Amino acid sequence: MGLFVTFEGPEGSGKTTQVRLLYASLVKEGLSVVRSREPGGTCIGEQVRAVLHDLGNQGMLPITEALLYSAARAQHVSEVIGPALERDAIVLCDRFAESTFAYQGYGHGLDLEALERITRFATGGLRPDLVVYLDLDVDIGLQRKLQDRREGKGEWNRMDQQSVSFHRRVREGYLTMARQEVDRWLIVDASRSVEEMHESVRARVLSLHALRVRRPHVTCSGGRPEPQ
Ligand code: TMP
To answer: Atom of ligand 1 at shortest distance to CA of 52?
Structure first.
C-alpha cells in the first residue's frame, strides 16, 4: 500500500505551497505521487466546494457544512485516494478529515464523536499515515490572507469570514489533536521560511517512505493495513 500524507493548518499557513514543493521534489526522486485537495479533488467534490465556499450561502448550518465536506470526502476517497494508494503511490492531500474535526468540531462546537462516526462512514476508516500540521499565529495567518486578497491572489471564501475567535478555536483544536497522536503528526512552525519548512517535511516523508519500502505492511482483516 502507498503512503497517505495530509497537510493541515489555519488560514494563511502556506499549506498549498508546501504540497506543491513536496510534490515536485518527490517526483524528481522518481516516486509515484498524487496531489489533491479537499474539499474537491474530484469533479463532484469541486462542485460541493463551490457550494460550501460561496459567500452567498451565509445561512449554512455547521451540520450542513460537516455533511457536505464529508460527502465530498467520500467521493474523493473512492475515486482518487483509495485507487492511488492501491497502486502504491504517495498521496499528498491539502486538507482531509482533520479539517472537519478542527473547523466543524473545535471551531463550531459540533460533537466530535458524531463527526468521527460521519468521517468513518465517509472514508471507510481510511486515515492519513502522516498529518503535516503547519502551525501559525491566527492573526498572522489572517493578515497574510487579507494581503493576498488585496493583491487578488488566492481564494477568499465563506470560511475565511468566520470570527477571529473561531479561528483561534480551530488552531487550539489542531494542537490538541497533534498532542494526542504525536507519532502521526508533524508540527511545523509556519513562521519559518518556505525552504526550511520544506526541508523538514521532505525529510520526514522520505524517511517514512523508506520504512514502508523496507517493511511492507502486514494486512489486517477487513480494512486498510495498519502502519508498521
Ligand atoms: P483552503 O483550501 O483554502 O484551505 O480552504 C478550505 C476551507 O475549508 C478552509 O477554510 C477550511 C475549510 N474546511 C472545513 O471547514 N472543513 C473541512 O472538512 C475541510 C476539508 C475544509
So the answer is: 8
